[in-house]
Amino acid sequence: MSEPVIHFDHVRKRYQNGHEALRDVCFSMERGELAFLTGHSGAGKSTLLKLIAMIDRPSGGSIIIENRNLSGISNWQIPYFRRRIGIIFQNPTLLNDRNVFENVALPLLISGYKSEDIRRRVRAALDQVSLLDKEKSTPLALSGGEQQRVGIARAIVNKPAVILADEPTGNLDPELSVDIMNIFRRFNQVGVTTLVATHDVELVREFPYRRLILRDGILSEAPDL
User: Residue 219's pLDDT is what?
Assistant: First the structure.
């Protein structure tokens, strides 16, 4: 069996105010796996994703991503590590003074890609989310669903090994939510490991994927559907 892409080994996260957000969390995800992370508001879903993305660090235990123990990554290395992680939030936080193409290109500009590579990668990413015809539009001219798809294109433009989605359909109606999930399914089918945090029970029921459940910082797993 291949090494897991994501591995949590007895991970804890306690904040300075004493709140224990995660308690003894253990789980693994294989390459190309798609899973839901569910739980009530405040259960620890966002905290878990932040630990994977190194937005925060654990209080105990170990996290291994693509065979790298995150405890061995220094602060200055974090931006380079994050190039392998695509992060999608409920609010895509697009820059309204830049068009769609420029918003998606931003991670590549920061990484120092050449103009020709940027053009090719951005258009490929927009094509993946069916927004190639909107590359010159501004975010304010787009619907909520289209803005979320721009956020997804920006997250995948670096061709990440892992996609983390934190309530990506929270502001969308059920039909658009299914459309967004179908985009994640396509990425999953080409080998991208994808973890989607959501409290949308109806959406989870639509798709037959593994479900990890957080309750007050304790992780369990739903039985197979």
Answer: 94
Taking the C-alpha atoms of residue 66 and residue 55, their distance in angstroms, rounded to an integer, is 17
With CA atoms as reference, report the closest residue to 217 among 53, 42, 51.
42
Q: How many CB atoms lie within 10 A of CB 38?
A: 21
Q: What is the pLDDT of residues 165-188, one digit of tens each?
A: 998 888 788 888 888 898 898 888
Pairing of strands 20-29, 6-14: antiparallel
Whole-angstrom distance, CA of residue 153 vs CA of residue 222: 30
Task: Note the residue count of the chain.
Answer: 225
Residue 120 tokens read as 């090719």
Residue with tokens 């590579």: 117
Beta-carbon count within 10 A of 129 CB: 22
Sequence-ordered strand ranges (E) for 15-155: 20-29, 34-39, 60-65, 68-69, 85-88
- Using pLDDT thresholds of 50, 70 and 90, give the confidence band for residue 224: low
| 16-62 tens-digit pLDDT | 898 899 999 999 999 999 999 998 888 899 999 999 999 999 999 99
Paired tokens of 148: 């979320």
Q: Tokens in use for 46?
A: 């966002």
Q: Which residue has the tokens 């967004």?
A: 180
Q: What are the domain boundaries of the chain?
A: 6-221
H or E element in which residue 199 lies: none
Q: From the DSSP assignment, how many helices (H) and strands (E) are in the chain?
A: 7, 10
> Phi/psi zone of residue 9: left (φ > 0), alpha (ψ -120 to 50 degrees), beta?
beta
Class of domain 6-221 (CATH, top level)? alpha beta
